[in-house]
Design brief:
Helix content: over 70%
Number of domains: 2
Radius of gyration: 28 Å
Shape: globular
Strand content: under 5%
Order of helices and strands: HHHHHHHHHHHHHHHH
Number of strands: 0
Distance between the termini: 49 Å
Amino acid sequence: MSSSIEVPDAGPQAGRTGVPRALMLMLGAASVVIVVAGLQAGAWLVAPILLALVIVIAVAPLQGFLRRHGWPGWLTVLALVVVIFGAIVGLVGVMIASVGQLVALVPQYSGRIQGLTASVESALKRVGFDPSQAQATASSVDLGKIAGAVGGLLSGVSGALTSLVFILALLLFLIAEASGASRRLAAIGADRPHMVEAMLSFAHGTRRYLVVTAVFGLIVAVLDSIALAIMGIPLVILWGLLSFITNFIPNIGFIIGVVPPALVALLVGGWQQALAVVIVYCVLNAIVQSLIQPHFTGDAVGLSTTITFVALLFWAWVLGPLGALLAIPATLLIKAVLVDCDPSARWVEALIGANSPPEKKEKKERKRREKAGTAAADAEGDAADTEGEPAVTAPPPRPAPAT
């Protein structure tokens, strides 16, 4: 009697194991929603951390310069903190003083505001609006209320900048830890070299984006301030500073920067002067921000214009006003973690990246490889001269016991 075990035929479903693709997509979408909701709920914590990280990345070359010239670690950290917070405190002081002048300036033109409101009401009546509706519409566009709202917005921005205690603590820790970043990257590169390349690319892209945006923002701010001074618009320093800050907001920063000085020009010199301000801003920003700057910014960040605009809307919705300023660095960080570190996901870069010539892409890839290759050398140099400690080598393996 022979005993045999018959294995039932599993059919065509035998080779299909794992979770169905539709369920995986649903789980992935649900995970994204949960992460975004968590970021939005913790925006008060995430936005300052991201701001501190961007600042540390921006000043990292200065820290390396000081360390190479023999400055001790604690003095380097102290110098960077003094420089950074001196600049921030000066910026906040200028904004607070300018907002105070703006608040004091608006009551001086109360008669002008009432006259403009009456002109709007009469114009609406002439085009067929009901008198009550025209009065309500004119009241809704009262320039005094708009100027007050603008003043409240600017004071809110300055109030956000004045909450520096948390950011100061973050900067202290991050700057102190930055000296050992190359050693950490070298340790990560032993197992995940693509992650090191992605992080170096993120830091380089963020730093270059900040430099390019700051240079062009300074150019636009100086030109706008000179033009406003020639036209006799008050508070030119505030409007120049606003132009510089809004230059870090891609695509729509120009619109935010032109509205307040145009309203003040409307109060000072009428609609002709307000129109002149808008025209001057359009000409300067069309030349600098729309024609020249995108060429350098696109090469710096490697993101298309559409992705940049979508990222602006997304991060402003998730993180608030700071999200609008940090939209590009936040997108570069997500891109480094999810796309650049995974060779199988590099095809995504072809969809979201800027249209650069092939030789520029090859040059960027070559620079990325060179930086990843020098991470280990920098780590050895840091280990040799940061703390003055001898290198620790692993002990030789013990011989196996004789059997």
